[in-house]
Write a structure and sequence with these properties.
35% of the residues lie in helices and 18% in strands. It is an alpha/beta fold and 334 residues long. The strands form 5 sheets. A 6-stranded parallel sheet has the order 2-1-3-4-8-13, with helices on both faces. Strand 1, helix 1 and strand 2 form a beta-alpha-beta unit. The structure holds uridine-diphosphate-N-acetylglucosamine. The site of uridine-diphosphate-N-acetylglucosamine has 25 residues, from strand 9, helix 6 and strand 10. It holds the Pfam family Epimerase.
């Protein structure tokens, strides 16, 4: 079986390529940077994609512009790399009659997590107002009555509600891939990654995930700066588990003509404050600072169950939070 991994030089893509290789796949790679799996090439370049697809049985699409972005000046790049790049790839797959796609999607397609209101049951609050955030009111409130809410677990069938450019283009990838599947009879397994961390995570940039930002700060002797009140919940999933999920997805039969989405999560949610403390403790300080700062594009809590991935793909996260953070505190960053 030959698998083309796009983004094979990246943080997640490099682990995915290695895991597929170890599982017996013949791996080719396409990335802006040269890799052991193939020459440099842009996923938006139809000829480069076409060459990379020669002989492929499936594509594992990890190439993307990631992160929350800095401001609206980033919009064209997100659309170009993520949406247009995926469209070029899908068109080339149709020409080459490659029928199987594993797509790196993201939990950010959900927007704000699910909540329960005592009066109104399950609700999905809209974006928090700048005013509430500035006043330190971080918890979303019931859209019907304004009451406080209890956090709940979100499932794959929840309606998507992307809140930033990255999320919007990740959802566009899912929609384009679903459309391709309908037209070609192909199968798409979309893996909605939660907060991935581990060795080679890109260092501190405005596009980095929070674990790498904290890790870089600690390495430089600075305190991790925890936004809001630090009680926002996420699910940190180790990159080795994410790579294993991709191998499971590559082996999966899929549903011809359709996209099927899966949460790829550890099932062990933690707060951002807990993550900062775990890393700081492991490195011997400095202690995290809770700053009350906020970013308009951020959601408050996002917690989902990996039960569907376990039931249908046989995926089980193996790296527990405490062990994963311990090794991440000393792991090389990209
Ligand atoms: C992250 C990724 C997103 C990916 C998703 C699932 C980034 C920027 N975001 O989304 O691409 O799809 O996981 O894998 O890579 N925070 C701080 N201090 C900081 C930076 C952030 O406290 O210096 C807080 C934020 O306010 C937020 C939380 O940490 O509450 C998580 O932030 P971040 O990792 O940037 O984004 P996610 O939305 O979780």
């Amino acid at each position: 079986m030959r698998a083309l991994v796009t983004g094979a030089a990246g943080f997640i893509g490099s682990h995915v390529a290695e895991a597929l290789g170890a599982a017996g796949y013949e791996v080719t790679g396409l990335d802006l940077r040269r890799t052991p799996y193939g020459p440099a090439g842009d996923v938006r370049d139809a000829e480069a994609v076409d060459r990379a697809l020669a002989g492929a049985d499936l594509v594992v699409h990890q190439a993307a512009k990631v992160g929350l972005g800095v401001d609206v000046a980033d919009l064209p790049d997100y659309v170009s790399v993520n949406a247009h790049g995926t469209a070029v790839l899908l068109a080339a797959m149709a020409r080459r009659d490659v029928r199987r796609l594993v797509l790196a999607s993201s939990m950010v397609v959900y927007g704000e997590g699910a909540y329960d209101c005592r009066e109104h049951g399950r609700v999905r609050p809209g974006p928090r107002t700048a005013r509430d955030l500035a006043d330190g009111v971080f918890e979303p409130r019931c859209p019907a009555c304004g009451a406080e809410l209890a956090g709940a677990t979100i499932g794959e069938d929840a309606p998507p509600d992307p809140r930033n450019a990255y999320a919007t283009t990740k959802l566009a990838q899912e929609h384009l891939a679903a459309n391709w599947a309908r037209e070609t009879g192909g199968t798409v397994v979309a893996l909605r990654y939660h907060n991935v961390y581990g060795p080679r995570m890109p260092k501190d940039t405005p596009y980095s995930g929070v674990a790498a930002i904290f890790r870089s700060a600690l390495e430089a002797g600075r305190a991790p700066r925890v936004f809001e009140d630090g009680r926002q919940r996420r699910d940190f999933v180790h990159v080795h588990d994410v790579a294993a999920a991709n191998v499971a997805a590559a082996r999966a039969q899929g549903t011809p003509g359709a996209l099927r989405a899966y949460n790829v999560a550890s099932g062990e949610p933690h707060t951002i404050g807990e993550m900062a403390s775990a890393l700081a403790a492991e490195r011997g300080g400095p202690e995290p600072v809770i700053t009350g700062e906020y970013r308009l594009g951020d959601v408050r809590h996002i917690v989902a169950s990996p039960a569907r991935a376990t039931g249908e793909l046989g995926f089980h996260a193996t790296v527990a939070f405490a062990d994963g953070m311990k090794s991440f505190a000393a792991a090389p960053l990209g």
